[in-house]
Amino acid sequence: MADLQKTVDELAARLGRPLLLEDRVQRVVVYSEQNGTMDDVRRDSILRRHTVPEVRQWLRASGIHRATSPLRTPGAPHLGLLPRVCVPVRYADSLLGFLWFIDADPPMSHEQVDEAVAVTPPIALALFHESLATGLASHRELEAVTGLLLGERDAARQLIEAGSFPQAQPVTVAVARPYEDEPDDTLRLALEQGLLALRRRLSGHHALHLVRYDHAVLITAGPPVPAEEMHAAMPMPVVVGLGRTRPALEEAADSYREARHAAEVAARVPALGRTAEWARLGVYRMLTQLSDQELHPGLEELLADVQHLPLLETLETYLDLAGSAVATSRALRLHRTSLYYRLQRVEELARTDLKDGGERLSLHLSLKLARLSGRYSPRDLHNSA
């Protein structure tokens, strides 16, 4: 509610006129301070916390419940009502509320109405988020889910007692991470909208969600929701990481940790596709626990110079294919002589011996770790060799 109040106060200050937000049954949600013309209806609505039936009937006759865009409602002197601009607040075609402005002394300009319309998406999202709460106020749900992912066992008890999650049911966590490196408020708002829409479709899974700084979290009862549903719900391209299913809600933090790591790996390793399951990450499960300071020392020179990227790509493909020169030449569409030359240059620059199994293992793991840290980003080898 504090965010709604801040949004309303800031918009009222910019427009220089009072503003009142009602829900869809015209109960007052928040209102700005009085900084302009006031009529009896605004005063009574603030005092009563709702609009009286006569005024509701008058405004309904003006078409506010059917409106999908701003409309101007006429005044009614006998009701103490000045003309108003009504901006309907909708989410996914559902009417959630109304923004009201007194349209007098002077009337609102088209530019001011457009500015009011521009703030409705976050208001709609906040109202919709409130409407999702079942037995637990949305701000309390947010706090409980945050605590749950931090491993606080009392948070699981709160969610179960409030009916937000079934008792004695397994839990699975999925993480969606956008490709953008620099998240902002617009991106987080889009993630929130996607998750809220998905929750509506997943009512049988007792879904919970949370949007963090750079990723979105979906918690469901039972086995994981098909990743394609999560991709479809997101308004931007994402990678999805899936944690392993745990037997009880108290262990959701463990599934979350795995899902987050899986999403990070998927973002760094495009070959894994748009979805990565922690249980199928193989060696990357171990590498997510390591620092890139653990790289093979001979790779530093190769990583430091972009001109050596073809050598690194060749080395990784060669090691991925168990040291088979035939398979590597075929995969890279590279002549065998050129392949041997590149591998020889790797040995010289990295001061290593590719005939040594220990060296091959160290180089292989180091290349995968460099991928995760972002220090090594191979091209599409089939088009770059």
Map the helices and strands:
Layout: H1 2-15, E1 19-23, E2 28-31, H2 40-48, H3 53-61, E3 71-73, E4 84-91, E5 94-102, H4 110-118, H5 120-132, H6 138-149, H7 153-161, E6 171-178, H8 185-201, E7 208-211, E8 216-221, H9 227-233, E9 238-242, H10 252-268, E10 275-277, H11 283-287, H12 299-304, H13 309-320, H14 325-332, H15 336-350, H16 357-373, H17 381-384
Parallel strand pairs: 9-10
Antiparallel strand pairs: 1-2, 1-5, 3-4, 4-5, 6-8, 6-9, 7-8
Helix pairs in contact: 5-8, 6-7, 13-15, 13-16
What is the CATH architecture assignment of the largest domain?
Answer: 2-Layer Sandwich
Major β-sheet profile:
5 strands, antiparallel
Strands, count: 10
Distance between the termini: 57 Å
Percent helix, as a range, is 40-55%
Q: Which H/E pattern describes the elements? A: HEEHHEEEHHHHEHEEHEHEHHHHHHH
Kindly give the count of domains. Answer: 3
Question: What gyration radius follows from the Cα positions, in whole Å?
Answer: 29 Å
Beta-strand content: 5-15%
Side by side, the strands of the main sheet go 2-1-5-4-3
Query: Structural class from helices and strands?
Result: alpha+beta
Instruction: Indicate the CATH class of the largest domain.
Output: Alpha Beta
Mean pLDDT: 86
Oligomerization status of the protein chains: single chain
